[in-house]
């Protein structure tokens, strides 16, 4: 592995292992099995690495697995000319160095036996148990399809399913790919490039998602060398030139060590070299590399609280670069990674990046899910399962993996699956949002309410009409932030469908595939419906149903003179203002307008303040006899309904109005804006007492989230 990734435990043990000679191991393997009372020499390195992480591990099962693997693969050779047994040995050694538990190592030794030899799964199960058999079967399924342009989608679909059922399957596969990449030089250049591209597009992002940084970093370097050989050589030359006795990081590391010792903090300060791709990225970002850009300081402590104590000392005794501070302990990354990141200025202005974490955090940062052991081990205190299940409940399964497993079932088209898989894996950050029922949703950064709706409700989200984010109404296009509380709102009409605009806001594969699938099943729905274009929201491209909002007051002013309002001048013509259409028991005020008429407003109408600002004197107005009853013609009122767009919304609203025995004098439906629709109705009611019931009936219409009295300003006359 690379200098950074070779051995996650090595900095802690402060000693390095001699390089393993696989050819020598191959010759040892060809000598055949050894006596049953001692460990074969060929896996002594595996045993040593395994015992470093698991001192009490029983190595008997490893010895039996090696004997079966060696005898089964005997006579088989790799393209490099080495005995084939060197491959499972190397894969197992990689996993042992990462701290994998015994079951994983046993399955790793046997991972090619069922595929390439006469050994059957039944034999594996009989000799090593269900768990090892399950892992071997999972890895075997990934090997049954060749890597080709047409085969890749199906290969990685199987990989996802196998990973979701047991993350250790993916761990073995990643180690298998790493060893194959190390020995890729024997293949033709075009085949090297093809395998490297697949590794770059899918396996490296999967390693990142699973937190296995030790494998990910070396895979990145190997892919870099194959796909970009010139840039790789330039980077290698830069690293070689920077190596020497005058390393500025050494000076800063010594200063940090003395500072922490004086503060009474027990910590280990190490220099952590960057791998090739990391150096290349820094060079592209900064142009010219500094002496401290070839590595970072790693501070290891015992407890979480010590991490913050170290941070405090560093920021007190050194000049910190505040913009570089990140707290991944309080908010871990989606791949289990925890650490404090900061940067400090050392002697002569040298800036050093510093990583602060506990020993446990360091182990997980390097090995990810591999460091978690067997996540499916039964708790002795837990009651036994009465009903076996083929699908395991994995406590370590990240949210992103659950999402991938869900949408891959819906992505029947291989090209769609392959493209969407790569796009999703390219998302390197995840947010967590809360549901109103106390649950959580894991979504990629940049996800919108559309994504939350499909993540929570699946295909039922086709009827979504909006959402509440942190208690406030929001459109489906609203981008969510980490920690938001989201409540998708669904229409009661289950026949309604999504809008084509939703595809512009969907970030998750599940949402995009579901929306695309719905329109594939309903091709006519992607076009505007002329019969409902005046009432629907986004996706139907509706136009105003009647006149504009400003025209409604003009029509109101042309109505009959009310007889239920009294003003100081009994001879003045009185009319109700169309901007607020007061009804009993509203408090009133009036203003004299051109022609001597008095226009009566509700006191809270915005037009009242506007009139007073221009010097108009108010006229006292009140409801006649305190009863405020109009003539037999009834009362007139203007209501504004705010809603999320959906088909048949106007029909449902007008039906609710008619049911309340109100007549529509005029109506305005504004063009949809950000999936919201605003309706303005001037209505005539038989009696003002029916107004509260009418407003409740309108609010009960699916998609309507508010109904209020009109408050828009009227012309001053």
Q: Can you describe what's shown?
A:
The chain is of the alpha+beta class and 717 residues long. Helices cover 40% and strands 15% of the residues. The strands form 5 sheets. Strands 1, 2, 3, 4, 5 and 6 form a 6-stranded mixed beta sheet that branches. Strands 8-7-11-9-10 form a 5-stranded mixed beta sheet. The chain has a 4-stranded mixed beta sheet with strand order 13-15-14-16, with helices on one face. A hairpin with a 4-residue loop joins strand 7 (430-435) and strand 8 (440-444). Helix 11 (167-182) runs parallel beside helix 13.
Shape: elongated
Radius of gyration: 36 Å
As a percent range, the share of helical residues equals 40-55%
Provide a count of the helices: 26
Distance between the termini: 83 Å
Query: How would you classify the helix and strand content by structural class?
Result: alpha+beta
Poorly predicted runs of 5 or more residues: 1-38, 145-151, 379-397, 527-563, 626-632, 713-717
Query: How many strands appear in the DSSP assignment?
Result: 21
Largest sheet: 6 strands, mixed
Mean pLDDT figure? 76
Strand proportion: 15-25%
Keywords:
single chain, 717 residues, alpha+beta, six-stranded mixed beta sheet, five-stranded mixed beta sheet, 40% helix
What is shown here, in short?
By secondary structure, the protein is an alpha+beta fold. The chain contains 26 helices and 21 strands.
Which helices and strands occur, and which strands form pairs?
Layout: H1 10-13, H2 22-29, H3 44-53, H4 60-73, H5 86-98, H6 102-109, H7 113-116, H8 121-128, H9 130-142, H10 152-165, H11 167-182, H12 189-209, H13 213-227, H14 229-242, H15 248-262, E1 268-273, H16 276-286, E2 295-301, H17 304-317, E3 319-320, E4 326-327, E5 340-345, E6 351-358, H18 359-367, H19 399-408, H20 414-425, E7 430-435, E8 440-444, H21 449-457, E9 464-469, E10 472-474, E11 485-490, H22 509-521, H23 551-557, E12 565-567, E13 574-576, E14 588-592, E15 598-602, H24 606-613, E16 618-619, E17 621-623, E18 635-644, H25 649-659, E19 663-669, E20 676-685, H26 691-699, E21 704-709
Parallel strand pairs: 2-6, 7-11, 13-15
Antiparallel strand pairs: 1-2, 3-5, 4-5, 5-6, 7-8, 9-10, 9-11, 12-17, 14-15, 14-16, 18-20, 18-21, 19-20
Helix pairs in contact: 3-5, 4-6, 5-6, 5-11, 6-9, 8-9, 9-10, 9-11, 10-11, 10-19, 10-20, 11-12, 11-13, 12-13, 13-14, 14-16
């Amino acid at each position: 592995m690379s200098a950074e990734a070779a051995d996650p435990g090595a900095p802690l043990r402060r000693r390095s292992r001699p390089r393993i000679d696989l050819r020598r191991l191959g010759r040892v393997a060809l000598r055949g099995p050894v006596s049953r009372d001692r460990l074969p020499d060929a896996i002594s390195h595996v045993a040593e690495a395994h015992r470093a992480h698991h001192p009490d591990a029983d190595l008997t099962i490893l010895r039996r697995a090696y004997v079966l693997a060696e005898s089964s693969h005997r006579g088989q050779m790799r393209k490099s000319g080495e005995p084939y047994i060197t491959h499972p040995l190397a894969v197992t050694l990689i996993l042992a160095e990462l701290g994998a538990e015994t079951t994983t190592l046993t399955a790793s030794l046997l991972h090619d036996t069922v595929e390439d030899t006469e050994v059957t799964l039944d034999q594996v199960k009989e000799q090593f148990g269900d768990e090892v058999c399950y892992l071997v079967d999972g890895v075997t399924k990934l090997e049954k399809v060749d890597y080709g342009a047409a085969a890749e989608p199906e290969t990685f679909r199987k990989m996802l399913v196998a990973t979701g059922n047991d993350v250790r399957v993916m761990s073995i596969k990643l180690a298998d790919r790493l060893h194959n990449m190390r020995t890729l030089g024997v293949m033709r250049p075009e085949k090297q490039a093809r395998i490297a591209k697949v590794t770059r597009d899918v396996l490296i992002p999967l390693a990142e998602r699973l937190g296995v940084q030790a494998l990910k970093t070396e895979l990145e370097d190997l892919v870099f060398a194959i796909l970009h050989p010139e840039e790789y050589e330039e980077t290698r030359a830069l690293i070689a030139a920077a190596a020497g006795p005058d390393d500025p990081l050494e000076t800063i590391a010594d200063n940090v060590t003395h500072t922490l010792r004086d503060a009474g903090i027990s910590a280990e300060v190490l220099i952590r070299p960057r791998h090739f791709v990391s150096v290349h990225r820094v060079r592209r970002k900064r142009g010219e590399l500094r002496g401290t850009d070839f590595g970072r300081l790693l501070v290891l402590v015992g407890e979480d609280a010590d991490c913050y104590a170290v941070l405090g000392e560093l920021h007190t005794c050194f000049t910190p670069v505040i913009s570089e501070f990140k707290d991944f302990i309080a908010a871990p990354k989606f791949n289990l990674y925890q650490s404090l990141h900061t940067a400090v200025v050392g002697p002569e202005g040298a800036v050093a990046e510093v990583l602060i974490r506990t020993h446990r955090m360091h182990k997980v940062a390097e090995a990810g899910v591999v460091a978690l052991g067997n996540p499916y081990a039964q708790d002795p205190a837990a009651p036994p399962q009465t009903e076996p299940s083929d699908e395991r409940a994995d406590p370590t399964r990240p949210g992103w993996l659950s999402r991938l497993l869900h949408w891959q079932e819906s992505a029947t088209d291989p090209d769609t699956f392959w493209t969407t898989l790569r796009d999703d894996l390219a998302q390197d950050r995840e947010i967590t949002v809360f549901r109103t029922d106390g649950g959580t949703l894991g979504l990629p950064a940049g996800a919108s309410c559309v994504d939350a709706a499909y993540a929570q409700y699946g295909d039922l989200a086709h009827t979504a009409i909006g959402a509440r984010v942190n208690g406030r109404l929001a459109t489906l296009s609203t981008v969510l932030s980490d920690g938001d509380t989201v409540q998708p709102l669904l229409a009661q009409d289950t026949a309604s469908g999504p809008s084509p605009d939703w595809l512009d806001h969907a970030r998750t594969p599940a949402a995009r595939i579901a929306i695309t699938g719905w329109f594939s099943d309903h091709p006519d729905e992607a076009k505007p419906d002329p019969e409902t274009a005046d009432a629907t929201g986004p996706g139907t491209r509706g136009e105003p149903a009647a006149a504009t909002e400003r025209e409604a007051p003009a029509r109101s002013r042309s109505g009959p003179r009310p007889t239920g309002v009294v003003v100081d001048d009994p001879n003045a013509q009185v009319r109700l203002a169309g901007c607020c259409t007061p009804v009993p028991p509203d408090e009133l005020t009036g203003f004299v307008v051109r022609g001597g008429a008095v226009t009566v407003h509700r006191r809270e109408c915005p037009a009242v303040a506007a009139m007073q600002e221009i010097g108009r004197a108010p006229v006292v107005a009140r409801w006649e006899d305190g009863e405020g009853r109009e003539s037999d013609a009834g009362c007139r009122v203007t209501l504004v309904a705010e809603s999320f767009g959906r088909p048949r919304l106007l029909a449902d609203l007008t039906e609710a109005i008619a049911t309340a025995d109100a007549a529509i004098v005029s109506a305005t439906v504004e063009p949809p804006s950000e999936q919201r629709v605003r309706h303005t109705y001037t209505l005539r009611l038989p009696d003002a007492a029916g107004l509260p019931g009418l407003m409740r009936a309108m609010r009960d219409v699916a998609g309507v989230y508010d109904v209020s009295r009109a408050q828009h300003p009227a012309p001053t006359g």
